[in-house]
Amino acid sequence: MTDSILTPALALICWTLVMWIWMYATRIPAMQKAKINPAKLQEKSELDVLPKEVRRIADNYNHLHEQPVIFYALIFYAALAGSASVVMIYAAWAYVALRIAHSLIQALWNFIPVRFSVFMLSSLVLLFIAAINVGYLLGS
User: Fold this and answer.
1) pTM
2) DSSP character for 103?
3) Fewer CB within 10 A of the end CB, N or C, for the chain?
4) Integer CA distances (angstroms), 134 to 42, 47, 123, in order
5) 95 contacts 132 by C-beta, under 8 angstroms
6) What pLDDT tens digit does each residue of the chain (140 aa) get?
7) 37: number of Cβ within 10 Å
C-alpha cells in the first residue's frame, strides 16, 4: 500500500491529528494556568495571553487545514483519474515530509526565514503535482 498515491494523504491526515493532540496537550494546561474559562471565551484574541510556544502549535494546526486541502484534492483527483505515477507518489511523499518539517519548525523554533523556505518548497511540490494532473488530463 505504500506505493499508493493515497498513502501520503493518509500520512498527512495522521500528522494533522498528532498536531491536534499536541495542541490540546499544551493549550489546556496553559489555559488552566492562565485561569481562562473556555466556556466564557468569545474571541480567539482572548487566547493571546497564552505563551507563544503554545499559540505556535495551535497556529500550525490551523495551517494544516489551509494549503494541504489543495494537496488532498489533487491526490484524490489523481487516484480517481488514474494520473498517479511513481514520480507523483514521490512528490506526494516529499510534500508530506516538507509539511511535517514546517510543523516542527513552527512549533519548536519558528525561525521565519527557514519556515518560509520550507513552505515555498512544499508549495512548489504542490504546483508540480497539479501540473502532472493537468498534463495527464490534456494528454488523455
Assistant:
1) 0.95
2) H
3) N
4) 44, 42, 16
5) no
6) 568 999 999 999 999 999 999 999 999 999 999 999 999 999 999 999 999 999 999 999 999 999 999 999 999 999 999 999 999 999 999 999 999 999 999 999 999 999 999 999 999 999 999 999 999 999 97
7) 9
Do 56 and 106 meet the contact criterion of CB atoms below 8 Å apart? yes
Cα–Cα distance for residue pair 46/104, rounded to 1 Å: 25
Asked if 118 contacts 96 with a C-beta cutoff of 8 angstroms, the reply is no
Three-class SS state of 52 = helix
Long-range own/partner contacts, residues 66-73 (CB < 8 A, 24 or more apart): 67/122, 67/123, 67/126, 68/12, 68/16, 68/99, 70/126, 70/130, 71/9, 71/12, 71/95, 71/99, 71/126, 71/129, 72/9, 72/12
Amino acid at 55: R
Cell of 94: 516529499
Are the C-beta atoms of residues 61 and 19 closer than 8 Å to each other? Answer: yes
